């Protein structure tokens, strides 16, 4: 198999090269823009590179290039997939910057969120006005800048492909992903506010819709499809990868929902029970509400979304959700979706090497602790 560190190194180098080039453009405008370049690098320096890896293995699944895929002579295809994988990382960084503003999160991966970094810059510099206003406005612009850069980086890669059909297909997949995740993000914030006016029997379905469009498609299905499109994949091959990617993406997000309530802050880089303070109307919460007695449900509704929840209140909500059986049900849903994904992977018309690696990655993303 192609060594994973090799791909991660190539993505890292491509991002460094691209960001250095864009930093020079910013610098030519004004040295005052240096924080935009510095914070961009900061938010792209870490992470698990899941989306980049799924993009690569979507490409490998269709092309079947084997062990020489990243070192062979077809430099155009290699440059295209590494650029696309890197573009996905920039897109993800942009989404996180905006997500932290929407959720009013103070941290990301154990470090200050972008708007808090800009707020600190304001305070350290002694500028006029409110630091938090400056922080939010600047982070919005940073996220917008990263979104634009993700498009530029993707286009640089696609320009090296010889097959115009592959270029159109990959661009179409990327555009669809961008629309879907933005729609999913809106549905997420809508549910935090509109749940009270929605019929009780619809809340699980509405939460499932958020899971699919905010995360499942964008995290796994879309990167696989983008990589496969670059390789000129057939309809059957892309359908097979989608049939694997969507249920795996659902399992991935359900694990994330559990970590948002029960994750170890030392591992996740987020405060314990952060989703409870943010009022996330996740599938875990929807299932808990179905199972709780009316009095417990009212208490959950009253406390969920209170940013001032203390440790004791968080622990009480964690225990309430667990004891009603909601956690066990979500774990069963993760297992069921994992089974569906693995069955689809077995049937997909893709390379044997990619099938083995994607199976290994599926286990990694659904069993993770952060």
From TrEMBL:
InterPro entries: Isoprenoid_synthase_dom_sf, Polyprenyl_synt, Polyprenyl_synt_CS
Pfam families reported for this sequence: polyprenyl_synt
Keyword Metal-binding recorded: yes
Molecular function via GO: metal ion binding; prenyltransferase activity
BP GO annotations: isoprenoid biosynthetic process
Family designation: Belongs to the FPP/GGPP synthase family.
Protein name: Polyprenyl synthetase family protein
Native source species: Agromyces tardus
């Amino acid at each position: 198999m192609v060594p994973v560190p090799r791909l991660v190194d190539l993505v890292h180098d491509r991002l460094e090269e691209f960001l250095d080039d864009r930093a020079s453009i910013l610098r030519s405008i004004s040295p005052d823009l240096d924080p935009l370049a510095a914070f961009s690098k900061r938010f792209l320096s870490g992470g698990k590179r899941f989306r980049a890896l799924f993009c690569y293995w979507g490409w490998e699944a269709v092309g079947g290039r084997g062990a020489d895929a990243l070192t062979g002579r077809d430099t155009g295809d290699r440059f295209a997939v590494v650029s696309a994988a890197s573009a996905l990382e920039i897109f993800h960084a942009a989404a996180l910057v905006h997500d932290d503003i929407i959720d009013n999160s103070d941290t990301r991966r154990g470090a200050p969120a972008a708007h808090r970094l800009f707020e600190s810059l304001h305070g350290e510099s002694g500028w006029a006005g409110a630091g938090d206003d400056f922080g939010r406005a600047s982070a919005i612009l940073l996220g917008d800048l990263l979104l634009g850069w993700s498009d530029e980086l993707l286009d640089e890669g696609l320009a090296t492909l010889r097959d115009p059909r592959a270029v159109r297909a990959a661009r179409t997949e990327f555009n669809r992903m961008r629309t879907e995740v933005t729609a999913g993000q809106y549905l997420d914030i809508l549910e935090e506010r509109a749940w009270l006016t929605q019929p009780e029997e619809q809340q699980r379905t509405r939460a499932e819709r958020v899971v699919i469009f905010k995360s499942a498609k964008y995290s796994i299905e879309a990167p696989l499809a983008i990589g496969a499109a670059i390789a000129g994949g057939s309809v059957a091959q892309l359908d097979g990868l989608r049939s694997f990617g969507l249920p795996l993406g659902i399992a991935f997000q359900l694990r994330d929902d559990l970590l948002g309530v029960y994750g170890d802050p030392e591992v996740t880089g987020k405060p314990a029970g952060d989703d409870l303070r943010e009022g996330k109307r996740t599938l875990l919460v929807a299932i808990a509400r179905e199972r709780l007695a009316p009095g417990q449900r009212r208490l959950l509704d009253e406390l969920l979304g209170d940013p001032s929840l203390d440790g004791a209140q968080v622990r009480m909500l964690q225990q309430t959700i667990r004891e009603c059986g909601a956690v066990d049900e979500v774990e069963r849903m993760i297992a069921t979706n994992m089974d569906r994904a693995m069955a689809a992977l077995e049937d997909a018309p893709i390379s044997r090497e990619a099938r083995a690696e994607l199976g290994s990655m599926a286990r990694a993303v659904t069993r993770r602790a952060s």
